[in-house]
């Protein structure tokens, strides 16, 4: 069974600084997708970034980028120029085509002014 | 483009009652997923519907059931409510035939069982 592990229950960062959230996963599949979602206090799950396993290039979305290490089964999220609005619970998720998502336990990110 | 919508926002029931939660997917999306987010238990997969059929279900008892309508909206029913069913229920939709099948989430329904 696939598992996703986020080893950092809480992280904090100063506004305008950079922070990296860690995620590891376990799978025997070769074709899969990885996602980072954020869940602010409103509880709405918002897609931050996605990565297809077959792509070697790391995904980037504005201030958000990932470091995808397929052999190590690692998928970290880097947030640059952190903003107060980035404060949220961040979930790493794994999925294959047309199937459920498996989520990590989440990392609570605090952004200090 | 309208996102995934869920109703009601909050639902309060007593133990033993039945709860019905509703979800409308993004236009053009045929798949609907249901997840339970209980305090301290993370996000757990409940059910997946696509083209009107149940495709997969998570490790939940049969009193959790649902259906998908011809317009792809979906209903989650929870029978014989128990206190531990109190949770945030999230619905997500995806365009099944798209390459990445990215799931987009609704705002959730907060179910409280007293």
Beta-strand segment tally of chain B: 11
What's the order of the H and E elements of chain B?
A: EEEEEEEEEEE
Low-confidence stretches of chain B: none
Q: What is the H-and-E element order of chain A?
A: EEEEEEEEEEEE
Our count of helices of chain B gives: 0
Major β-sheet annotation of chain B: 7 strands, mixed
Provide the residue-averaged pLDDT of chain B: 93
Largest sheet report of chain A:
6 strands, mixed
The most extensive contact between chains is: A-B, 23 and 27 residues
Count of helical regions of chain A? 0
β-strand amount of chain B: over 45%
What is the global morphology of chain B? Answer: globular
Cα(first) to Cα(last) distance of chain A is 41 Å
Report strand % of chain A.
over 45%
C-alpha Rg of chain A (nearest Å): 13 Å
* Residues in helices of chain A, as a percent range: under 10%
Any low-confidence stretches of chain A, pLDDT <50, length ≥5? none
What structural class do you assign from the helix and strand content of chain B? mainly beta
Descriptive account of the structure:
The complex is a heterodimer of chains A (113) and B (114). Chain A is an all-beta fold and 113 residues long. Chain A is 0% helix and 52% strand. Chain A has no helices and 12 strands. In chain A, strands 2, 5, 6, 10, 11 and 12 form a 6-stranded mixed β-sheet that branches. In chain A, strands 3-9-8-7 form a 4-stranded antiparallel β-sheet, with no helix packed on it. Chain A has a two-stranded antiparallel sheet with strand order 1-4. Chain A is globular and about 40 Å long. Chain B has 114 residues and is mainly β. Chain B has no helices and 11 strands. In chain B, the strands form 2 sheets. In chain B, strands 2, 4, 5, 6, 9, 10 and 11 form a 7-stranded mixed β-sheet that branches. In chain B, β5 (42-50) and β6 (53-57) form a beta hairpin. Chain B is globular and about 40 Å long. The mean pLDDT of chain B is 93. The interface between A and B is medium-sized, with 23 and 27 residues.
